Amino acid sequence: MSASDKTKEVTAYNERALQRLAWAMEASQGQFSLIFAHCNYTYVQQQMTERLRESCPVPIREVVLKKSDRKLYSNIRQDLGDQQPGAMMVFGLEAVDDIDSLLTATNQVREEFRKNFHFPLVLWINDDVQTKLVRVAPDFESWGTTREFQTPPDSLSYELIYTLSQQAKEILATFPDSDPDKFLYELNRGIDDLSEFGLAWQDLHHHNQEIEPDLDAFFYFMAGRNYYVKQQFEQSLLYFQKSLDIWQRLTRCDWQGMVLFHIGLCPYVKPEGKKIFEQCVDSLAQISDQDLANRLITQVARVLQRLQRWEDLETLAQRSLKLHRASDNSIELAKDYGFLAEVALDKLAWNEAKELAEQALSILKTSLSDESTAISSEHKAKLDGMPSVDKAWYLLLLARAEKGLCKYQYSINYLEKAKAETQAHYAPELYIRILASWRELYLEKGDYLAAFGVKQERISIEQQFGLRAFIGTGRLQPKRRRTKSQLPALEQPEMVADEIIASGRQKDINNLVERIGNTSCKLTVIHGASGVGKSSLIYAGLVPILKQRAIGQRDVLPIPIRVYTDWVRQLGKLLVNSLKTRGLSLSVEADSVTTILEQLQENGDRNLLTVLIFDQFEELFSDLPDLVERNLLLEFLKTAIDYIPYTQVILSLREDSLH
């Protein structure tokens, strides 16, 4: 039988099964009946469900089970309340984590279904669920009738396996440049619907459908990752080994290295397992694209570093060091010494760590010097001025080694250099590690105030780049994205912080933006109790929104200020910086009340809407105790509000200071 004939036959069979299911549902109105709709593929299940809604006159209610559900009867009863629908369909049994417990509980309360459900109940099941029903809930299963739905094995099954292979390819493609934490998160999350891919793979083999070897290898690889998630490491290793055998026959060195790396992540009982990472490096080194090979090897080391698998990291780095020394790859050689320095720090071998870090720095310096001789003087200037993440890392290692040797001043000097060599927007994790080491150093010296300041900066960076779930009572900052350039960005794109959106403050921001656009409302006062989040609303919500959008036909220039001791100089400086980020300059020096007012007037002529935001305005009375100086600021505000067009003023202050 040809593939097209088989497809037609399956389609006709499914149509008949669908009609019988619809008739059974109609015939069971007002009484309980149990029907199992047996289908292995979500795609076919969705098609049949849609066709059933169109052809069956009975109103159908649907329930989708969650992975964590443990009671079928209770879930249905809770969803229904006192209602009795025409029919009910239940989806998601195959996705329930503890399906055995759910089916056991269902079998125990089966009489409740007959007593309380006066309608046909349709449960969608696959092969696995059917097997468990017969084994765990035989009494409940015996009540039901089954309607089978088939799948053309030569089309959908192959498409599913192909889809799985694309997911596997995506893992390898993104691995060299991905963050280690993201890789580990994806590894430990697994694939929810792998069972469906497994059924497709079985169908293809059962029908003697020819499968390319690489598709088999992809399936085994992804199956191995899923068993790894479940901590079923023997099964995981079994599938990884099957995948590795195929890649070795196909001489795909990149995939051999990738699978060996995953094998190495599994717990071992055999001593020879320690050689896996050496084999991983050897395989990756044979890739024709040497740049890709080096990036893959470095990423493997970074993941091991993140997992604190120091013994494995040492094994890998030693093998990689020999490889890069032989190929005269100095940049990668320096990284090898850096990883070995990390291992030495874990062993508290401070002098060894210091020597290794110094070696890495020396090799990096020589490498950059050699490379720069072969390039133009213009490019050399750019290269010399570019902050180096690698250099910052080696300086951090040196700082930690010096701290271990109780040479605190040397350690501080190295940390200062490390911080200057990197940018938070390019390598936030490294930047945070530098700050964490700095704080530990200050604490050890007893400088608690300095340690607190560094801690606050670290928390702020973690919040801005989504590396901290909760900031506590601190002021939120705008959300920022990491960039691909190490060069300092003149205008980092800022976004509304996730915490602002999650807390429901987006509506407040929208109301403020609408008010700012109203020319008759030139003064806005934000007030509330201390700690309620006024400053966070401004800096992490309102200001990023105003920077991104125009109001009417005008671009918005938000200028937040919260220091009032020298407010004229501070406001002038903020005004200059804000205009520079837009490529604009000042026609006058903004160093007095008069010149600032002139510049605000000119901003209006430049099609700008200036929004002056005075945060913690109650501090005015403590920062400016002199009445004359205080009145100068108040007169400035009055003039800006009454006489300067296209200038808005926002005051934020504590509620108890409104009087």
Summarize the structure.
By secondary structure, the protein is of the alpha/beta class.
* CATH-derived architecture of the largest domain: Alpha Horseshoe
Oligomeric state of the chains present here: single chain
> Helical proportion?
55-70%
Name of the level-1 CATH class of the largest domain: Mainly Alpha
| Biggest sheet: strand arrangement | 2-3-4-1-5
For this structure, the CATH topology of the largest domain is Serine Threonine Protein Phosphatase 5, Tetratricopeptide repeat
N/C terminus separation: 89 Å
* Low-pLDDT regions: 372-387
* Alpha-beta content class: alpha/beta
Topology (SSEs and partners):
Elements: H1 3-27, E1 33-38, H2 42-55, E2 60-64, H3 72-80, E3 87-91, H4 99-108, H5 110-116, E4 120-125, H6 127-136, H7 138-142, E5 145-148, H8 153-174, H9 180-189, H10 194-206, H11 213-229, H12 233-249, H13 253-265, H14 276-285, H15 290-306, H16 310-326, H17 330-346, H18 350-372, H19 377-385, H20 389-404, H21 408-421, H22 428-445, H23 448-464, E6 479-480, E7 494-495, H24 498-502, H25 506-516, E8 523-528, H26 534-548, E9 550-551, E10 554-561, H27 567-581, H28 593-605, E11 608-614, H29 620-623, H30 627-643, E12 647-654
Parallel strand pairs: 1-4, 1-5, 2-3, 3-4, 8-12, 10-11, 11-12
Antiparallel strand pairs: 6-7, 9-10
Folded structure, characterized:
Mean pLDDT is 82; it is low at 372-387. With 659 residues, this protein is of the alpha/beta class. It has a 5-stranded parallel beta sheet, with helices on both faces. A 5-stranded mixed beta sheet has the order 8-12-11-10-9, sandwiched between helices. The protein has 4 domains: 3-151, P-loop containing nucleotide triphosphate hydrolases (Rossmann fold), CATH 3.40.50.300; 152-327, Serine Threonine Protein Phosphatase 5, Tetratricopeptide repeat; 360-373 and 385-469, no CATH class; 495-657, P-loop containing nucleotide triphosphate hydrolases (Rossmann fold), CATH 3.40.50. Strand 2, helix 3 (72-80) and strand 3 (87-91) form a beta-alpha-beta unit. It is globular and about 90 Å long. The protein is built from 30 helices and 12 strands. Helix 14 (276-285) packs antiparallel against helix 15, helix 22 packs antiparallel against helix 23 (448-464) and helix 25 (506-516) crosses helix 26 (534-548).
